[in-house]
């Protein structure tokens, strides 16, 4: 045993309170995972940048990277089109203030540094512009907590016990669906009972659902159980356990396709089985730019002829701090309001203030996003020889004041998305679809065909 211990890696694992048990490599006292090498020897894998590889091993690694076969298989799919929904850095020429990062993704740290590098007067001017814009364009966000009768089997836990049930998620899913029904994008079938497949096909107006950022797919599971949807497309780039797929595949005559692909690269019109089919698009908590990618995927390249028809859309937005100028769907909207690209990036970082407090704290729900108050006296204190850092001002702000600013930024970003959807010919609105106590990320972007009649139940 002692001899065996001498051949083991000497890297200490504090969480396990022991040394690594892997064998050493060569003359090193560490294993391959913990061998001490300088950072400049490591480069991102060209196949999957989420992990790095030694530059000297790059040629061999590319040939045997675990994701190589997956990438090759995806590239062969007709619906794969690299970057089709990514957006472009257009609008930079209208941004006279330049950019902190003209190319690539701007990290949260870069956004924070951009904001903290402002002078106090510049920071307060940005806050004033946010308050002015919010007061003009975000005045009609209604509360629409809508739990439809059709979803009672889930709400009352009258479902297969093998299916995972968390009340907060079920209520969110049901309200998303209820809002789609309310705008006429969904119609209930009379004979839907439980999870049975015997459904009276009275209306073929909506035959399919496309769920973006589907995860395990239980929002779609509820749609299938309660509304008789016959075709299901789950778009998700990651692999998940305990998916709804197993339960869905047991349903007779249900077409189920899980598209393991980044939304950025999905050409929805090239999904052959969806040609000529009417569908609704849904997404529960589509993080950051995923909302913008999904909107482009559904609306910016719709053809006549063989393409599918979007009947309704419901996307619950979240994680606005991850939004990027390149991906954002309505840059013109921001530039016309007088915001620069860098100010947009600063606003995305400010959105984290809306939900950075403990959800169990006594911070009240922000329902009336009024002005956060005058700051003339504070600005006068700045003086020529005594610049106060923005970081210090932020640290002294009250939690509610920070939350108000964060929510305003989130709603302005979502209002721009709503405006873009309207330009595509759909009726669109923003609603608060779930109480703040269930989730502070409670904004739902709704859209539907203007002439779509309300369902007859």
Please describe what this structure looks like.
This protein is an alpha/beta fold and 457 residues long. It folds into 2 domains: 36 residues, no CATH class; 371 residues, Rossmann fold (3-Layer(aba) Sandwich), CATH 3.40.50.150. The chain has an 8-stranded mixed beta sheet, with helices on both faces. Helix 4 packs across helix 12. 35% of the residues are buried.
Describe the protein's topology.
Layout: H1 2-6, E1 12-13, E2 18-19, E3 42-44, E4 52-54, H2 58-64, H3 68-75, H4 108-116, H5 120-137, E5 142-143, H6 152-155, H7 167-182, E6 208-212, H8 218-227, E7 231-235, H9 245-248, E8 255-259, E9 278-287, H10 290-300, E10 309-318, H11 331-336, H12 341-350, H13 376-380, H14 390-396, H15 399-423, E11 427-432, E12 443-448
Parallel strand pairs: 5-11, 6-7, 6-9, 7-8, 9-10
Antiparallel strand pairs: 1-2, 3-4, 10-12, 11-12
Helix pairs in contact: 4-12, 5-15, 7-8
Features:
2 domains; 457 residues; two-stranded antiparallel ribbon; alpha/beta; Rossmann fold; 32% helix
CATH class of the largest domain: Alpha Beta
Low-confidence stretches: 91-100, 190-203, 382-387
Structural class by helix and strand composition? alpha/beta
The coarse silhouette is globular
In percent terms, what proportion of residues is strand?
5-15%
* C-alpha termini separation: 74 Å
Average pLDDT score: 82
Helical content (DSSP H or I, runs of 4+): 25-40%
Q: How do the strands line up in the largest sheet? A: 5-11-12-10-9-6-7-8
Number of helices: 15
The major sheet is characterized as: 8 strands, mixed
CATH architecture verdict of the largest domain:
3-Layer(aba) Sandwich
What is the succession of H and E elements?
A: HEEEEHHHHEHHEHEHEEHEHHHHHEE
Q: Tell me the total number of β-strands.
A: 12
Number of domain modules: 2
């Amino acid at each position: 045993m002692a001899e065996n211990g001498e051949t083991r890696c000497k890297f200490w694992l504090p969480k396990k309170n022991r040394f690594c048990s892997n064998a050493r490599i060569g003359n090193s006292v560490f294993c391959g995972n913990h061998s001490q090498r300088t950072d400049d020897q490591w480069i991102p894998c060209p196949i999957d940048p989420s992990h790095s590889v030694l530059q000297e091993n790059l040629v061999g690694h590319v040939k045997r990277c675990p994701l190589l076969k997956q990438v090759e298989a995806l590239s062969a799919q007709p619906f794969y089109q690299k970057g089709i929904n990514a957006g472009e850095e257009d609008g930079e020429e209208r941004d006279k203030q330049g950019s902190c990062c003209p190319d690539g993704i701007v990290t949260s740290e870069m956004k924070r540094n951009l904001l903290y590098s402002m002078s106090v007067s510049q920071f307060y001017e940005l806050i004033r512009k946010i308050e002015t814009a919010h007061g003009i364009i975000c005045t009609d966000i209604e509360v629409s907590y809508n739990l439809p009768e059709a979803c009672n089997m889930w709400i009352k836990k009258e479902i297969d016990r093998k299916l995972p049930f968390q009340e907060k998620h079920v209520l969110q899913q049901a309200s998303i669906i209820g809002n789609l029904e309310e705008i006429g994008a969904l119609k209930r079938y009379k004979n839907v009972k439980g999870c049975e497949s015997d459904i009276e096909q009275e209306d073929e107006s909506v035959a399919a659902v496309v769920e973006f950022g589907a995860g395990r797919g239980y929002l779609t599971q509820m749609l299938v159980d309660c509304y008789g949807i016959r075709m299901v497309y789950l778009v998700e780039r990651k692999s998940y356990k305990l998916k709804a797929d197993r339960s869905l595949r047991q349903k007779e005559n249900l077409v189920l396709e899980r598209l393991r692909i980044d939304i950025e690269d999905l050409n929805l019109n090239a999904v052959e089985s969806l040609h000529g089919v009417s569908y609704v698009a849904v997404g529960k908590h589509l993080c950051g730019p995923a909302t913008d990618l999904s909107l482009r995927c559904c609306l910016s390249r719709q053809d006549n002829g063989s393409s599918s028809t979007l009947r309704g859309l419901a996307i619950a937005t979240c994680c606005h701090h991850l939004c990027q100028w390149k991906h954002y769907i309505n840059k013109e909207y921001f530039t016309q309001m007088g915001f620069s690209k860098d100010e947009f990036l600063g606003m995305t970082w400010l959105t984290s203030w809306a939900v950075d407090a403990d959800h169990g704290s006594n911070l009240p729900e922000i329902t009336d996003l009024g002005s956060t108050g005058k700051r003339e006296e504070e600005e006068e204190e700045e003086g020529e020889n005594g610049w106060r850092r923005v970081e210090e001002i932020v640290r002294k702000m009250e939690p509610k004041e920070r939350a108000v600013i964060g929510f305003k930024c989130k709603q302005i970003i979502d209002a721009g998305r709503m405006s873009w959807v309207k330009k595509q010919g759909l009726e669109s609105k923003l609603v608060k679809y779930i109480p703040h106590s269930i989730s502070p990320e409670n904004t739902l972007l709704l859209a539907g065909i203007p002439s779509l009649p309300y369902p007859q139940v």
